[in-house]
Specification:
alpha+beta; Alpha-Beta Plaits; 2 domains; two-stranded antiparallel sheet; 10 helices
């Protein structure tokens, strides 16, 4: 996860370094007997907590719009608290107001940005919770849940797909599938180990659950294949959703470590779940042959 945010971390270091250089060039160091160690302790602790927030964000979230709001809102707080701490060791001229502004202004702006990001995070979590509740609509047997990805497997998918086919055909509504395949996942496990493979699958399942709608159902169809069931969704809409998902999934790609993903979409016109899943396998094979929808590492 850290690799996705390396440019953010580099920018953050440069920002803090520029603040340090500006403070050093703008003022003079205080004598040790002028230090207020109680203020140093309080402001230093606040700074460390804000830095901890940054660490939690980049270690637990994939790159994306909500992550940007969370990260840069927290970074503004870190910048403000960092300059506030430097103020305990450096005395600035009375006429120089720039450092005072830089200490004060980033904090409230950062709080607003961070709050906006938290609202987006809350919406994501609500979507994931609805996805989890949706899995319980038809089957309650928790033995059908994959323990690694916390997604339902093929048995649950077949049962739900059969029910949705009958329901949508009786109501003359559209039904679509998204099929995601990890190319040569066995080779990835051999090169990097089973632990790395498990971590990747967990990240992938979390991203899929957060990016699809609450009415959609994501299942782990096989060890290296996922299928998303899209109720009330025609093929053109499924294609738009697939394109959005490709953009999000490309953030998982890494030239040295991550496997290649292939994503395909199809409209369900078959009268049985078994026939639909067979067609999904055919569509995926065609997509791999065409190579047009494969997510190559960046």
């Amino acid at each position: 996860m850290w690799r996705q945010h390396r440019y953010k971390m580099l920018f953050s270091l440069l920002l803090l370094l520029s603040g340090l250089l500006l403070a050093v060039n703008s003022g003079n160091a205080k004598l040790s007997n002028e230090f207020d160690w109680l203020d140093v302790l309080g402001e230093g602790t606040t700074l460390l907590v804000a830095i901890g927030w940054l660490g939690l964000i980049i270690s637990s979230r994939p790159a994306g719009r909500v992550t940007e709001w969370l990260y840069y809102g927290s970074l503004l707080l870190v910048y403000s608290y960092f300059l506030d701490l430097l103020d305990e060791f450096i005395r600035y001229p009375e006429h120089l107001r720039l450092m005072s502004w830089l200490e004060s202004l980033p904090a409230p702006v950062g709080m607003l940005i961070l709050t906006y990001g938290l609202v987006g995070w809350h919406r994501e979590q609500r979507a994931i919770n609805r996805q989890l509740r949706g899995r319980e609509l038809f089957l309650r047997d928790h033995q059908l849940i994959d323990p690694l990805t916390q997604l339902y497997g093929i048995e649950y998918l077949q049962a739900v797909l059969q029910r949705e086919i009958e329901l949508h055909q009786s109501q003359h509504k559209a039904l679509s599938l998204l099929v995601l395949d990890i190319d040569n996942f066995a080779g990835f496990n051999r090169r990097h180990g089973m632990a790395a493979g498990d971590t990747y699958l967990s990240r992938l399942s979390e991203l899929l659950s957060s990016q699809l709608r609450h009415s959609d159902l994501v299942c782990r169809y096989a060890g290296d294949r996922f299928i998303a069931l899209l109720p009330n969704t025609a093929l053109p809409q499924a294609q738009i959703m697939a394109q959005h998902l490709r953009q999000q999934l490309s953030q998982l790609a890494d030239a040295q470590h991550e496997p290649v993903l292939t994503l395909a979409e199809m409209a369900v016109q078959q009268h049985s779940a078994q026939a639909a899943l067979q067609q999904a396998a055919t569509v995926m094979a065609q997509a791999k042959t065409a190579g047009a929808v494969t997510l190559q590492p960046s």
